[in-house]
Amino acid sequence: MTTKAEFFDRIRAEMGRTRDLAPVAPSVRPARPRERLDVLRRELSERWRENLQRFQHEFERVGGVFHRVADVGEAPEAIARIASERGLRRIVAWHAGALGVDVVAPLTAKGLEAVAAPDAEVAGDERERRRALAAAADLGVTGADLAVAETGSLVVVSGAGRPRSASLLPACHVAIFDREVLVESLVQAGLVLEAWHDGAAPPGRGASINVITGPSRTADIELTLTRGVHGPREVHAVFVEQGLASRRV
Amino acid sequence: MSEPEPATPFRERAGQALRDTFLQEALTIATTKFIGLRREAFAEFPEGEALRDRAREIKEATLQRLDHYLDLLIDNVERHGGHVHYATTSEEARRIVLDIARRTGARTAVKSKSMATEEIHLNDALEAAGVTPIETDLGEYIIQLAHERPSHIIAPAIHKTKGQVAELFARELKRETVPDPEVLTRIAREELREKFLQADLGISGANFGVADTGTIVLVTNEGNGRMVTSLPRVHVAVMGVEKVIPSMTDLAVFLAILAKSATGQKLSVYTSLVNGPRRGGELEGPEEFHLVLLDNGRIRQIAGPLREALSCLRCGACLNVCPVYRQIGGHAYGYTYPGPIGILLTAMLNGTESVKDLAHASSLCGACLEACPVRIDIPRMLIELRKDVNERRIAPWSERVVFGALGRLLQHPALYRVAARLGRLLQRPFVRGEVIRRVPLVFGDWTRTRDLPPVAARTFQERWAELERPGRR
User: Fold this and answer.
1) What is the pTM of this model?
2) CB-based contact A191:A40 (threshold 8 Å)
3) Is the terminal CB of chain B with fewer CB neighbours within 10 Å at N or C?
4) Cβ of B181 and A6 within 8 Å?
5) CA distance B391 to B381
6) Full residue range of the structural domain in which residue A230 is found
């Protein structure tokens, strides 16, 4: 088996044989990404209406369904409406702390089977049980840690109370978000990613970040666009005008 | 040599593809559609051109300090609890994955689409070791059921009709169905969902490895990349060493151009950033994460003639615009990577010998260079390869003799003049009308597919000399 030392010796030997390379540099990483991000967020807070409009436009272009509610109390109703219109009953959701709202109680009150994820480590067999629940669920409710206007993308960071499966296994995904997480462009999303990775990961942060741009799709059979091949067939974004009290990443 | 040589010669494989009328139609529809989507995507993205230059610079800058960035990536992957392995050859890469499978008692492996694992022919090795590999990208799943190989980097099953897929599902999955892509996709979803939930091992490639953070980035449209990296208890990512990039800021640049070049989307549906195994508090995620760094001929090219090809993002844009690919499709190339970039990658992995014919499977029109998101000068390297094929005496002797003689003629004006006069005499029996359609002996290869203009009654040189004569001005 090749060792790391042998592998690197060969790489360095080949690098030593290169001639006349024009000097080029990678992108300049922001020195203090968190501070830069704070500044950016303040700037963006003045343009959130334009950004939300652009997000909605792009999100709908990729096949997403956009909803808007005045305050957090209306969010469960919006979810219930989506569920009842499609005859969906079993719902898995992020933990209320990560979501910024408790959806389980109001959804249960409407006769739906809703379960929220635990926000701390659980044993292996409990994880198995939870996974089976998610696999059997019709609808998954998550927050969004970032919404990118340029591409109509929702970004979810996994972690305690934020299971990956909620936005993946059910055929219908509903993400709740507010103006705080809106950015304009992929370049700005790059800055957010730098900030999230700056320093040690906070407790409860998971190992997976997903940028979701519309419902799961394929065109592998005769280039016919088909939705929901592995991931959700439908993606909904519920914008909460008054903001959410969620635990930010 | 890592890949087996195709059983039939290139000319035969290409001929077969040209006679396949369905393939011809499918190729035209698919490549034309991809070209249009890509053009539209960049048309409404004026900053795209500058970002393409930027992306290329980032690739080049990374290559110039490859040891540094790889080392950083490795440190960060290990810091997150991942394991890193080093594979010099495809054989070694297979052994590493098999060892992991054996040690963890894996019986089934779900795979997300990965050219790197195609390149090392991992599936055959897994099967031989008693581990069932399941391709989960719909296109890859179809061709795995059909026991075929991908024919396009991003649309592996474009050569199949929905009718053929329906027959395949009926035969292999025992599920009778109408030939409707919607229904077929639903069947695949059901079949594969079970596999995802049961599989012990998840195997993926990597579109990028971010050194700064130790993150493996996967880009998919179907969501299978997310399944493979989240549901099985072990995740193995096989990544070519050239896929490392410095930072998240760099990643944003690549994401802005990758999907636009591949499918004309602003972004693919899922961009998954994976940072090692499951962390405390998470419900899902693998208990073990392994990164296999793959050389397989790449490292040799850091200072080699194919260095530029190390910047390739595997978007497939050069395939769609290539007049040769558009006619013969991916299978005729005979190796894992088809199309213009595929010829270079095949030479990289398997040596110049393997592309002695393929090096000529290009009109050198430059469409690939134009389409490449990172502006890889594919035509220049194809010419270099042809030169190498000739110099190393791999080309057929007739070709070497003819081109050698032509080279000498073109370098010596006196010799050229004599040859022109001689040619005028010798060509007489072969000129039909204004062209030569067939010439004898070893020269016959040239006129097999093209006509040859005869030497003119008076050559340009002769007329020029006349004009230059004093008194004519």
Assistant:
1) 0.94
2) yes
3) C
4) no
5) 15
6) 32-240
